[in-house]
Structures are given as C-alpha cells and as structure tokens.
C-alpha cells in the first residue's frame, strides 16, 4: 500500500477543472433529455435527470477521456449517457416495488411526483436515450468509437453489471452475506457503471495502450468499491438533509453493509486503502496528466453526501 | 391502391422460409438471454423471452436483411435485439402500475411468477442486453453496422418511439382520441419498433440505395399500423385462449381503438388497405427478392392471434 499523499487533494483545483465541465454536462443534458417527448413523459425524464446529483460518472468519463486525449464530442455524449443510466436506475430503484423511497436529492421521487406508470416509462426511455446519445448521425464521432461506447455501457448496465447487482441486492435482504458476496454485489450494482464510466472515457480515444487501459480499469474498480464503502459509512453517519435522501435506510431494511461487516472504523480504513490503490493504479498507467482522475478519487472518499 | 394479390399469400411457402429462421432465432435467444446472470434475474429474463411469441420483429429483420443482402451475423443479432426490446416492453406493460395483466402468451405474467421487483429488473436488463447483442467484440460485424443498429434500435425504443407511445396510451384512457391522435399513438407504441425492425434489417447491408431504403421504410410503416389495427380487431373478435392474453381488455379499460373509431368492418377494410400499401412499397423498392417480406405482410393482416 502506497501512502496517501494529501497534497493530491486540492478542492479548489478540482473545482477549477470540474466547474466548466459540469456546466457543459448540465447544458447538454438540458438540450438532449425529454425534448420532443410526449409532454408528461418528457417532464418526468427531465425531472429525474436535471438539476441534481453529483455527476460523478460524467466527470469520470471526461477526466479519463482527457487523460488519453479522447474525442471531446464523444466524451460529452458518453458522460451524459452514463448519467442517464444512473438516473434511470434511481427512478426504478425508488419505486414502491423496490426500495419504496419518497425522497431523492431533497425532492419527491419521480413516482411520487408523476405516478408509478410514468416513472416506469421515464426510466425505460432514459435507458434508450443513453444509447441514442452514443450513436449520433454524421462523422464527428467515428463508428468504431460509437460501437465501443455502446458495448461498454450495455455491459455495465445489464444483468452482469448494474441490473444484476440490483437483483442480488434484492435477494440479499435479511441474509448474512460474507465479505466476498457483499463485494460481488456492489462490484455489479455500483462498481460496474463507475468503472464503465472510466473505460468509456478511455474508449473516446479509439485506441489506448493496453497497459494504460488495464491501469484505468484498476483505478475504476478501486473507486467503484470505495464509493460504496463511503455510501455505507454516510448512511450511518450523515442525516437525511445532508444526503438529500433517506439516511439509515439500509440498517432499517436489515441490508448487509460494509459498516455492518467491518464496523465504522474498519470501513473508513478500507476506504483509505482503496483510495491508495486507485492512486497507485494511476501512477502505473504511464499517462501524463491524471490530476483530474486523482482529484475525483479523493472526492469519492472525502465526500459528505 | 393496387389490388391485393391473394396468390402472394402462401402459408406453406412462408413456413418453409420462416421455420429454419425461427429455429435459429430461438437457439440464439436461448444461448444469449439470462446466461451468467444472477440466478433469479436470469430465470425471469429467460421466462420473459423464450418459448413464446410470434417473433414477428425478428422475422422482419431477417427478411429485410436478406432482401438487401445483409451481413447474416448482424441480422441474427439484430433480430434477437428487437425481440428483447419487445419482450421487455411486455414485462413492464403487464406490471400492476401499468396494465396489471396476469396472463401473457397463455402463461402467468413475469411479475406474477417472479414478483414485481424482479420483473422490473428483468425488463431493464433485457433492454441493456439488446444493445449488448448489437455490439460484439471482434470484426465479424463492422463497427459502422453495429453503430447504425444501435442508433435505429434506440430511436425505435425510446421517448420518440415505443416508450413515448406507451406514455401517450397511458394518458389517453377515457379520452375520445380522433383518428390522427390514435394513429400517432400507435405509430410510436407499436409501429416504431416494427418499422425499426425493417430498417435494422436493411442496415445489415451497410449501404442500401436510398430509393430502396425509403420504400422499405414505407413498407414498415404500413405493416406497423396494420398490425395495430388487426390487434384491435382481435381484441374484440378472438377469445383469451386463442390470443394467449386477456381479450376485450381495451374495451373494458375504455381505451380508444380502431374498432371503436371505425367499427369492425371499417377496421377490417383499413387493414386490407394497409396490406395493399405495404405490398406496393415493396413493388417500388427495386429489390429483387421481397417474397418473405410480402408473406410477412400477409401474416400480419391475416393472423388470428
């Protein structure tokens, strides 16, 4: 384990990089989501996506793409596509037949606002839109990159990715999962799309040295797991207002978490360990400029919501 | 309007074409759907897809691809992808918050068998799998075809296609839609994916003469609408056992249909008119072998379930 260098973490420097990128992502999402859709459906799609969320997945796409010198148009579309998949998963996850949650990002959930049927359809339409964004007409984005982005996103979202992890989660309530089982569930449920975001960013360059690609994958896997460990910590330590969603619900639902497995201090130590692993992966990537990726790794671990 | 040539319709000849194609589609679906997924999710996905349905969309893909000399590997994957989108839409459409239907293809619906949460996730995972099937590793299918197939499928499935049509349908219960509104709803809800299937088949050739492509689009639009008109007729005239789903449910739900708009005889006359339009489109396509597409158009209009 390499020591964590606290100098890496410079919130002001991250903001100077991320603020203009976030502005571009927000503008693109507003331009692309729910426009020309039937009115109620479009409203529900926009409500689910716009003006909320940390946009961590888009930032990972953009940072990885910049690290490898990727096609900027492809990266912006890939960034938005990952956020649409994330947003649709939240809409469906909040439904009464799933987590039955009424609060998300400090606002009523989509089904509370628009009804269950439109929430279901909005989620479905957001998933389709993600793939539509990745495959624009014209030749600004080479077809080889379009196809690779669709491949990575479909794998990250499907039964061997996010949806598979949600199914394992569903089947695990009240069960005493061991560490390997818990890790596998989260590797799919949360990790696959976070790691996929990094890989999609790298794919925007078309071709990347295999060593660099492997290192970026390791980085993505480490921060994917770290994200969930921190989520479990925050579920115990933060209040609902700070989180913008219902705190303590995992414990209330008797769901296994990293905190229930390792205790609070143990989970915190694991999060630091994973941060160190993610930074070590960047060190061995051979890529010249990984400052944004490093800063995002710190953000994942040090966030308070 | 050209006269309908009843000699076109040769059930035995269609079967000699479609039977081996259906066998390939079934084998491919069985090989690709729900394998390596978490166990309950994979079971629900396979239950939703395998051993059921007319496989009209796959047959349209395969027939269109053969008419233009398309890549056979691409066509098989595109055929399965359209069926996965169709299957996922049925799973979600049957949920209690939507149509609340308990019978589909003569069997209990997915949520009745596996619970609402797994039905929701199975539908989500099937949509992702559709795009995963379209983007395999390797160079058997050129990236330009993979990207085009994803583009067409995403548009057909999303808020300006199938999901959008379902949202309009949802908002229309109890309303007196006029013909234009009803047609627009069905153009999206059912027509977009049927027309998209034809376009995806054509896309398997990479490049197709624009006149032929326009004619195939017109063919797809005509049979897409004809399919829904016949569906509305069968909802009134067939029993649940023959249909394999609950008959008469549109009338019971006070949903607008072509039969409520035109009467039974009027709807039947429209179906014949649309059949003639679809065949006329094939005549002007300039394509040499459109026999399978012609036979499928007859099948759409003359089916009894």
UniProtKB/TrEMBL annotation, chains A, B:
Record Gene3D superfamilies: Farnesyl Diphosphate Synthase
Cofactor dependency: Mg(2+)
InterPro entries with a match to the protein in the record: Isoprenoid_synthase_dom_sf (IPR008949), Polyprenyl_synt (IPR000092), Polyprenyl_synt_CS (IPR033749), Prenyl_diphosphate_synthase (IPR053378)
One GO term describing the cellular component: cytoplasm
GO process terms (BP): terpenoid biosynthetic process
Family classification: Belongs to the FPP/GGPP synthase family.
Protein name per UniProt: Farnesyl diphosphate synthase
